[in-house]
Amino acid sequence: MKRTLLILILLQLCIICNAQRIAVLDFNAGVGVSLADVEGISAIFNTYFSPKGYTRVERTQIDKAIDEQNFQRGKYTESQMVSIGRILNVSNVVVGDINIVAGQYNIDVRVINVQSGTIQAAEGATWASGTSYRNTMKTIAEKLAAKIAINQQQSSSSSNSVSQSKKINGHEYVDLGLSVKWATCNFGATTPEEYGTYMNFKKALECCKYWGGSWRLPTKEELSELADFCSWTWTSQSGVKGYKVTGPNGNSIFLPAAGVSNGSSRYFVGDEGLYWSSTPYESYTTYLAYYLYFGSGNHDVEWQNFPGRRTVRPVSE
Known about the structure:
By secondary structure, the chain is α+β, with helices and mostly antiparallel strands. Helix content is 28%, strand content 33%.
């Protein structure tokens, strides 16, 4: 009996030692938000945020680090967030910003890699003032936890996404563990870092047939799956800014921030990415459609009446 108990204790210690450490800081109080609001919203987030493979730092340790540095609670700068993380010897810190605009609460929560200072994952939401936000914060906490969950098998397989790529009709793809396979580069590109061809919605619907096989434009649902069930890390690859998107199975692709093209000019290159889906918005079948949008701190599937040409990342069955 004693031997069995000793083994169980040793196993538990091994799990704790192998886990990475993460600290959840008080969210920043923005326009129109009181510290009492911040405390309540932060408390609900903390209740549901429990990422697999991480050990949460105790609140008392976080408070001590903040007090020692004389940082103002709820008003942290990006550099202060990273400094707190280094003092606590954690791999990641979770931070958030809360604002009230036109009677609505807006919250953006980010997981920051302390070593690189880059955003590893992000989630956001909006709700009307005076309404309950418990379910909203529960959803944000659970989505972020799922995105950064550590799995030993995933960690070992995600170190080199190129080695995990295969080909369909001569074009490389990566299986991210989702419902479809994702091409390793944009349409019109030969490497993951190249922006590829910019096109309007009508041409985007037709372009993938030139790749042959089962290649096609992703649907709105498939882009949402990529956005919601993968870990997104803003990074630079071969000097090109964009996101490393890591799937549930640990494999990853790189999406360059190609911006948009309008005539002979390009806009938001290096800052934003806009990728077409095959799903039109309601009855607008020629130029209005859903697309994947991302910047350095957020990513989502949106629609908009915008004349610029966007890029395409093909998928296959």
